[in-house]
Amino acid sequence: MQLPPVVQGNVTSPAGFQGAGIAAGIKKPGILDMALIVSEVPAAAAAVYTTNKVQAAPLQVTKEHIAAGPLKAVVVNAGNANACNGERGLVDARQMTVKTAEVLGIDAQAVAVASTGVIGQPMPMEKILAGIDSLGCALSPDGGEVASRAIMTTDLVPKTGKVEVVIGGKTVTIGGMAKGSGMIHPNMATMLAFYTTDAAIAPELLQKALTRSVQVSYNMISVDGDTSTNDMALILANGCAGAPSIDSEGADYEAFTAALTALSIELAKAIARDGEGATKLIEVRVEGAATEADAKKAAMAVVKSSLFKSAVFGNDANWGRVMCAIGYSGANFDPNKVDVYLGSVQTAKQGMALNFSEAEATEALKQKEVVVTVQLHDGDFSAAAWGCDLTYDYVKINADYRS
Amino acid sequence: MQLPPVVQGNVTSPAGFQGAGIAAGIKKPGILDMALIVSEVPAAAAAVYTTNKVQAAPLQVTKEHIAAGPLKAVVVNAGNANACNGERGLVDARQMTVKTAEVLGIDAQAVAVASTGVIGQPMPMEKILAGIDSLGCALSPDGGEVASRAIMTTDLVPKTGKVEVVIGGKTVTIGGMAKGSGMIHPNMATMLAFYTTDAAIAPELLQKALTRSVQVSYNMISVDGDTSTNDMALILANGCAGAPSIDSEGADYEAFTAALTALSIELAKAIARDGEGATKLIEVRVEGAATEADAKKAAMAVVKSSLFKSAVFGNDANWGRVMCAIGYSGANFDPNKVDVYLGSVQTAKQGMALNFSEAEATEALKQKEVVVTVQLHDGDFSAAAWGCDLTYDYVKINADYRS
Questions:
Q1: How far apart are CA A228 and CA B181, in angstroms?
Q2: How far apart are CA B379 and CA B221, in angstroms?
Q3: What pLDDT is attached to residue A121?
Q4: How far away is chain A from the Cα of B246, in angstroms, using its nearest Cα?
Q5: Contact B392 A394 (CB under 8 A)
Q6: I want to staple B108 with a disulfide (CB 3.0 to 4.6 A). Which of A174, A199, A239, B101 is the partner?
Q7: Residue A339's pLDDT is what?
Q8: Residue A224 or B360, more confident
């Protein structure tokens, strides 16, 4: 799949979208904690959700509303995940969509809702309802940037981008924003990603494209292996670019999917790079696998290995930990055919140590983006996975949040 | 299964065994790094090995020798794992058994070999062969304690124990020693466990008993989720207690298995407690599961969660991370029926937060042994898993070993 370049932009880059971000007081006063994305016209919608058996209330409400038809808005809050709140959580999530619908003068079923933050604590609904009022008046065609900051939790930087693709002679734009798997007081990682596009595309194809893009992006990153109750990726397609509608698979669908995939990978890498306490992005490329599943398993095992993540933090050319991780990954391969590279330095050949330059390998590990390549010599499939190093700060952030 | 008490003792506690530990110079001069266990008479042998696809040479040689019949000796070295050394690794491992056989005047096929330490580096065979000579002369009926120290890597304390069980009116003893999953320069965790017993038991039943005991002990601990290329648990049964031979399943077999299981759990917990950088032992009990597999999956997911391990280090009563971990564990359960306890403090009921005392929960987390209980209210099966907290020192040990 040929991936187009991702450039600066956000969810209000495509035509026909407005965005807003405000401080509702869910987090500390003055800290942005609520965002709203609105499409001027009903938009085809698709979403993917966490596989965690414990799913937050907003996910259930959003699933129902997407099943009911097109969406016009997405309301998001940070600071409270509205998870493990039982029946009350569902009531509160529904009320967020009802209030947003009132403010925008639309049907509540046209509103999706997402939350991230503390779990097991009731939502501060007074602040949230007042926040939704403020969001309505704050909507702007340039609101995508502030919206991207309003969904941040322990993220250090907002994560946005856009990509363009020509459909039937017309340029359509996909904009996106994501928040990372930084853990938030007092609870767990949440990954949220929101996309907007002015392309016209059938909902089932939009769903298929989103699912495909997620499989090679968000599903291939790991900060600490934990999977949250609130993860969600959602896309709205409003057709405002005036390009012909993508109603069947083919060149246009493939081009759109490639563009969405490029943006998803860019945002996913931004999440990994911004993992809590991380000082480096680790990219693991597994090549020469017998199947794509083998390549993915092997790549994920390496980016998930606490041993290897610690070694990267310490600039320790510890290729043995790579061998070990692919060994227990469940991937099929022949240990005696494996080559391992740290950056451009080959450290192992046919499963055995090479007498490589420690200095060069250490240099490769000192980069902001550390690339590990594993060649299995076992087939034609490959996969990439992204993660970050394991540092003192990761432990500090997750152990000492109270202090 | 009723488990008998584990008391002080080691691999030379059972009748008819001798042990030795010496400093062969594989590690720093004067540091114990080779051990030998010898049975006066041929002993039935059984072993379980790492599931890692990358398996160290000694494992392959030991498998062959156990398949060939009874064993009389086990030679072990620390400081070099003899993994990822290709054909040369196999030759070196075989030579270790040949040399040990020469020294003891026995058949090389009666010798098992195990290694732990650096991978991808050739074995220092001169030192090792000289070390085996020294081991022969150092053998003693009281050598079990020094042997247990000679297999340590980054372990802070030796791990030994013994348990007694009456078979046909005669008391038989099982002694054991293990080394933990401390990571060693520059490579990965290795778990080694060696048992001796003066019971008489058919090899196939010995294998079955060992496998059963490992499933609820070593297979239920996690220090950092990594699985080594060198893990091995091995048992020798020489019949010297003069008890009737256990040749079929039944009360005697069950009693023997319970005793071996009690010792295995004790040694496994000692390994978790001594995990690198660990300040606490975490015991996770999952009860009320629909199946044993569900209970095990849920328990392991919690002890493996970096988020929860960090929270325990920080005395953070972060029950939401427990909910999250069981949620992605793959276990089947109803999130709305889950109760969570930190120590004796119930923090969640039917999947929702309770208004518990933070002070009491924090106190429970400050203990040296933190017990987390998850009640699924979904069936009659339960499981326990053990791990340790994630600390700055874990990262330090695995990142900065060079400094």
A1: 28
A2: 23
A3: 87
A4: 35
A5: no
A6: B101
A7: 97
A8: B360
B17-274 has CATH 3.30.360.20 classification: no
Q: Give the distance, in angstroms, between the CA of residue B121 and the centroid of all CA atoms in the same chain.
A: 24
Calculate mean pLDDT across residues B380-394.
89
More confident residue, B119 or A164: A164
Q: How many helices (H) and strands (E) does chain B have?
A: 11, 15
For the residues of A68-105, what is the DSSP string, one character each? HS-EEEEEEEEEE---S-HHHHHHHHHHHHHHHHHHHT
Which tokens hold the place of B284?
């996770």
What's residue B347's pLDDT? 94
Spell out the residues 6+ positions from residue A330 whose beta carbon is closer than 8 angstroms to its own. Answer: A297, A301
Over residues B296-311, mean pLDDT: 89
Q: Dump pLDDT digits (tens) for B332-341.
A: 999 999 999 9
Helix (H) or strand (E) holding A179: strand A170-179
- Collapsing DSSP to helix, strand or coil, B305 comes out as coil
Radius of gyration of chain A (CA): 22
Mean pLDDT of A185-193: 62
Nearest CA in chain A to B327: A53
Residues A297-319 as b/e (b if ≥16 CB within 10 A, e otherwise) read bbbbbbbbbbbbbbbbbbbbbbb
Tell me the C-alpha distance between B309 and A89, whole Å.
28
Does pLDDT of B372 surpass 90? yes
Q: Which residues of B does the annotation mark as catalytic?
A: 190
Catalytic residue among A12, A62, A154, A190: A190
Alpha-carbon A284 to chain mean position = 18
**Cα–Cα distances in angstroms (integers) from residue A165 to residues A9, A45, A250, A289, in the given order:** 14, 19, 14, 31
Query: Taking residues A257-264, what's their average pLDDT?
Result: 97
d(CA A152, CA B16): 66
- H or E element at residue A375: strand A369-375
Say if the Cβ atoms of A400 and B314 lie within 8 Å: yes
- How sure is the predictor about B225, in pLDDT bands with cuts at 50, 70 and 90? low
Over range A8-16, report the average pLDDT. 98
Q: Give the gap in angstroms from C-alpha A69 to the nearest C-alpha of chain B.
A: 29
Domain boundaries defined on chain B? 17-274, 281-400
Record the tokens describing residue A62, joined without a space. Answer: 């959003």
Rg (CA), chain B: 22
**Residue B344 burial by CB count (10 A; 0-12/13-18/19+): exposed, middle or buried?**
exposed
CATH annotation of B281-400 = 3.10.20.340
Answer whether residue B94 shows pLDDT above 90: yes
Known binder of ligand: residue B287?
Answer: no
Nearby residues of A28 by Cβ (< 8 Å), 6 or more positions away:
none
Tokens of A47: 């979403």
Tell whether the model's pLDDT for residue B187 goes beyond 80.
no
Question: What is the crossing angle of helices B306-313 and A392-399, to 10°?
Answer: 70
